[in-house]
Here is the input.
Amino acid sequence: MTGPPSPDLDRLLARLTGPAGPELSCEECFEQLDRYVELELELDRADADAAVPGMRAHLEGCPACNEDRESLRALLTSDQA
Here is the structure.
């Protein structure tokens, strides 16, 4: 007897099958990252996702680009303090 799928299995399956919607390449992500992070900080994630379609899916699937995002967020929020 099996139970419901685990969250880890769900995440793994999502990464293997890819996003349901549009996704950016790393180059496109890099070109839009400043704008996306600024929108995230000024508005909220949903508004940033709507303004830059495909960015969220790319960041969830690309550890290198997501690390760049986190570094940029940290830099911008440290300037505000």
In short: DSSP finds five helices and no strands in the chain.
